[in-house]
Design brief:
The structure holds two protein chains of two kinds.
Chain A lengths: L1 H11 L35 H28 L3 H19 L3 H18 L7 H22 L8 H12 L20 E9 L6 H15 L1 E6 L2 H5 L6 E8 L2 H12 L4 E8 L2 H25 L7 H31 L3 H27 L1 E3 L1 H4 L2 H11 L4 E6 L4 E3 H22 L3 H6 L6 E10 L2 E8 L6 H10 L5 H6 L2 H5 L23 H10 L3 E7 L3 E9 L4 E9 L2 E6 L3 E6 L4 E5 L3 E6 L2 E7 H5 L9 E7 L2 E7 L1 E9 L13 E6 L5 E5 L9
Parallel strand pairs in A: 6-8, 13-22, 17-19
Antiparallel strand pairs in A: 1-3, 1-4, 2-3, 5-7, 8-9, 9-11, 10-11, 12-13, 12-20, 14-18, 15-16, 16-17, 18-19, 21-22
Helix pairs in contact in A: 2-3, 2-5, 3-4, 4-5, 4-6, 5-7, 7-9, 11-12, 14-15, 15-20
Chain B lengths: L11 E9 L2 E6 L3 E7 L12 E7 L2 E6 L1 H5 L9 E8 L2 E7 L1 E9 L12 H4 L2 E7 L2 E6 L1 H4 L2 H10 L1
Parallel strand pairs in B: 2-10, 5-7
Antiparallel strand pairs in B: 1-2, 1-8, 3-6, 4-5, 6-7, 9-10
The chains are: A alpha+beta, B mainly beta.
Chain lengths: 686, 158
């Protein structure tokens, strides 16, 4: 098949740029293509089918190479080399056939090195693996650009580097690759600020290209957003990178390569700061190891767009609804006649129900990712922040296996970065200060996750100086948020909650690290947006604990169906703690008609859900549902409870998408609609 | 549904003419997806007053606008209503109508600018006016019918 395709290519004469009908190409003669004018990287005209074929085959080989290289490094099993060689060889051949000369040359250069290993001329060192993995990354980037129908990145520097290594046939472990071995005095550090112009048609792909260009010319010390975000196509506006270059020329080359993209604006700030940077570089090394292992794990999976997943999940949602109808119908038939027909139908229904249930569960699970994808970034972040601020911090991470809906990852990460920055910047004291108050010099920062009652709980705890409620009171008065009297009347805990008020952070607090004017109010808003909640406790001198409560999944949730005003409403189960018979509960009236329900000695505010929602109530309210609203318990009265159900959350649609009282609506088994109440969004009214 | 059979004229367009409290209105057929009879409209507490409620449109939740309230010409009684499903930007939104009169072909030169007879507020939602069989038809601009300003102003009110 491969031959056939190649023939066709040549027959059409499209694969012009150095396509060679034979698989073993003498690339030394073809090297002129690498010297072609900058800015005209090869573009090939493959038909969509051919492109699809080529890309999928190339990806297979690239993945094979990557897997093999990682295993080779870990297991040192040289029999893997033959397989690696085969992957590189196939890739070289099919790229050449498709007219992708440069990709073919890269494959060839990698193949050469692997050949030396196979012949025992070269030892497997981690430097060698690193360099070959760079080749893998480049190949992948080229295939990516090809798929996006964009100019391919330039592999020439890497090809030269690989060839240079191949020429030095020493059995000694290779030192750093050629480009990076120049003397440390020539090293240049620079911060690159890359903006992607809004008119860029494919900003995410451009961001990825910029990242690749940077990693080719220099060593990336820090990168914002992180590589994983860029690879996931979520970096669309701006990249900020700190890079270390072997010499000034590399930086200049990179700059000129980046500025070739007309839709990028590049700002370069040069620094000369040897020591500090090299320290961070060590941290980077560790992180690289981490990323490569995750990439290896990712190879076992298929990429599916969230949109497609949502479409599938919606279909399953429909199925769930129809299942309920079917079950009810069959029950009716069974009531009508008790002969064999009904029984048989019942059997079928039960099986269908079970399968639908399993389908729903496993599909929901495919949206779940372990929290390690979020937590994995933090060791690096904490280390850097602590160093920048002269703090000593020990990070402890727990529960990273806890799974969470993929759609929540981004928001959670956003919140955690903020909380961790706060903890290190404001919470944990300097080593001297800690010793002076009798604490160990090293501060403790804990991030832990667990699952409970359909929620994921993430806790960020530090043993720093805590927050003084009196300071908060003073600040609130200064900012005009409260009068002195109001402030004095607040309990310490209530005073602490003031930090969630928008615009509470003050100028003094705005540091390089946690500044930018985003405060705890932003974290709270982000959590509420995803149906989560935040709770905050602090003890002066002992530390601060922030608890985030997130829904397990956004798509299908268990809910309690309650009746008010003669209609059904759904309450998400994760905010329901128990259901009580109101007629038998101890209810007391305090103050101006405010009702309190005594639950095992605890007074809980009691109010009517119909009143809270603004629904005209119908029948007498006989049932109380104890719910958690912003981490506090309260009782809401309803006319009755219809039962518990798995519901599919559907958006209310334009122009109701911003309504605060409802998360959305769901379609019940009989096709009717129930609104899903957002208890956190409800205004507290009595 | 009506097909555009005529290809020769780009000036020609089809409009759906409907009646609201005796007045004739029209929308370009490009914006109209279908017309459905709806009986189970679920009211949404806290929604802006011009929202009649939400409906289950083949498994999808769609908001239904009380067109009369939106245009300030009375209000729709809730029971069973005729809903014109319109594409507003990328959203599907239902609009109540009393009766659909006809789907007809017009040419652009039949549409005249809005006179001073209507308030500027109302004029913003109109693309123009035209005469059909001697009767005045107000041609609504689907894109401006629910524009952000209108919606946010109403949301702020409620």
């Amino acid at each position: 098949m491969k031959n056939g395709r190649r023939k066709k290519r040549n027959g059409q004469g499209v694969g012009a740029a150095g396509a060679n009908p034979s698989e073993t190409v003498d690339f030394s003669e073809n090297s002129k293509s690498t010297q072609r004018k900058e800015g005209c990287r090869e573009m090939v005209e493959l038909s969509p089918d051919e492109l699809e074929l080529f890309v999928s085959e190339a990806e297979e080989n690239i993945n094979g190479l990557e897997n093999g290289l990682l295993r080779l490094e870990q297991e040192g099993d040289t029999s893997l080399v033959a397989e690696l060689f085969r992957h590189a060889h196939t890739l070289k051949g099919s790229a050449g056939a498709a007219g992708l000369t440069e990709m073919s040359q890269l494959g060839h250069a990698m193949e050469n090195l692997l050949d030396q290993v196979r012949n025992g001329e070269r030892k497997v060192t981690s430097d060698l693996i690193d360099t070959l993995l760079e080749g893998v990354d480049m190949l992948r980037a080229m295939v990516f650009s090809l798929r996006q129908n964009e100019p391919l990145p330039n592999p020439s520097p890497l090809i030269n580097q690989l060839n240079a290594i191949a020429e030095r046939k020493s059995l000694e472990p290779e030192s750093k690759p050629a480009v990076e071995t120049s003397s440390p005095s020539g090293e240049v550090t620079a911060t690159l600020n890359i903006f992607i112009k809004p008119e860029c048609p494919m900003p995410a792909a451009r961001a990825f290209q910029a990242y690749l260009a940077m990693s080719r010319y220099g060593e990336i010390v820090s990168l914002e957003p992180p590589v994983s975000e860029i690879q996931a196509g979520r970096a669309k506006y701006r990249l900020v990178a700190q890079l270390k270059f072997p010499d000034g020329a590399s930086l200049n080359e990179l700059e000129s390569e980046l500025t070739r993209f007309e839709d990028l604006v590049v700002e370069v700030q040069r620094q000369q700061d040897g020591r500090k940077v090299s320290e961070i570089v060590t941290a980077q090394k560790e992180k690289e190891v981490e990323t490569t292992t995750t990439t290896a794990a990712e190879l076992q999976s298929v990429r599916v767009s969230i949109e497609q997943m949502d479409a599938l999940l919606n279909l399953v949602g429909e199925l769930v609804i129809e299942r309920a109808r079917l079950e009810r119908g069959v029950r009716k038939i069974a009531e009508l006649n008790a002969n064999g027909v009904a029984e048989e139908l019942q059997g079928v229904t039960e099986r269908v129900s079970r399968i639908v249930g399993q389908l729903q569960e496993s599909l929901t699970r495919t949206r779940m990712v372990p929290l390690s994808v979020v937590f994995g970034r933090f060791p690096r972040l904490v280390r850097e922040l602590a160093r920048n601020m002269g703090k000593k911090v020990q990070l402890s991470i727990e529960g990273e296996d806890t799974e969470i809906d993929r759609a929540l990852v981004e928001k959670l990460n956003e919140c955690l970065v903020h909380l961790v920055r706060n903890a290190i910047d404001h919470g944990i004291e300097s080593p001297e200060e800690r010793i002076a108050v009798g604490k160990p010099a090293e501060g403790l920062l804990e991030i832990s996750a667990s699952q409970s009652e359909g929620s994921v709980i993430v806790v960020v705890r530090d043993d720093g100086r805590g927050i003084d409620p009196n300071k908060i009171r003073r600040k609130a008065i200064e900012r005009g948020l409260l009068t002195e009297e109001q402030a004095a009347n607040l309990s310490d805990d209530e005073a602490l909650q003031l930090i969630f008020r928008s615009g509470f952070s003050t100028k003094e607090e705005v540091s390089e690290v946690s500044g930018r004017g985003v405060g705890m109010d932003a974290v709270k808003a982000a959590m509420e947006q995803i149906g989560g909640a935040i709770d905050f406790h602090s003890q002066v001198g002992e530390g601060t604990t922030v608890t985030l409560r997130l829904p397990l999944t956004l798509a299908i949730i268990p809910a309690l169906l309650v009746r008010i005003g003669g209609r059904l409403f759904a309450l998400p189960m994760h905010s329901v703690t128990e259901v009580l018979d109101l007629t038998r509960s101890d209810i007391q009236v305090i103050g101006q008609g405010e009702k309190v329900l005594m639950l095992r000695g605890n007074p809980l505010p009691l109010c009517s859900l119909s009143h809270l929602l603004g629904v005209r109530n119908g029948l007498a309210e006989k049932t109380a549902v104890i719910v958690r609203q912003r981490e506090r318990l309260m009782a809401v009265s309803v006319e009755g409870v219809e039962g518990k159900d798995e519901i599919v959350i559907k958006p209310l649609g334009y122009p109701l998408h911003n309504l605060r009282s409802f998360i959305g609506a769901t379609i019940l088994g009989d096709g009717s609609i129930a609104l899903i109440v957002d208890l956190n969004g409800l205004a507290i009214r009595r | 549904m009506v097909k555009v059979a005529d290809e020769k004229q780009e000036q020609e367009r089809h409009i759906v003419v409907f009646r609201l409290n005796g007045t004739l209105f029209a929308l370009d057929i490009q914006s109209v997806q279908e017309i459905v009879k709806q009986s189970d409209i679920v009211s949404v507490p806290g929604a802006p007053p011009f929202i009649l409620g939400i409906v289950n449109l083949r498994g999808r939740i769609m908001a239904v606008v009380d067109t009369k309230r939106l245009l300030g010409i009375g209000e729709t009684s809730a029971d069973k209503v005729l809903v014109m499903v319109a594409q507003i930007g990328e959203h599907l939104v239902g609009f109540t109508v009393d009766e659909v009169e006809q789907v007809t072909r017009i040419t652009s030169d039949m549409v005249e600018p809005v006179s001073d007879l209507v308030s500027p507020e109302e004029a913003r939602r109109l693309e123009g006016v035209l005469k059909l069989d001697g009767k005045l038809v107000l041609l609504l601009d689907a894109n401006r019918l629910l524009d952000e300003e209108v919606v946010s102003a109403s949301l702020a009110q409620s």
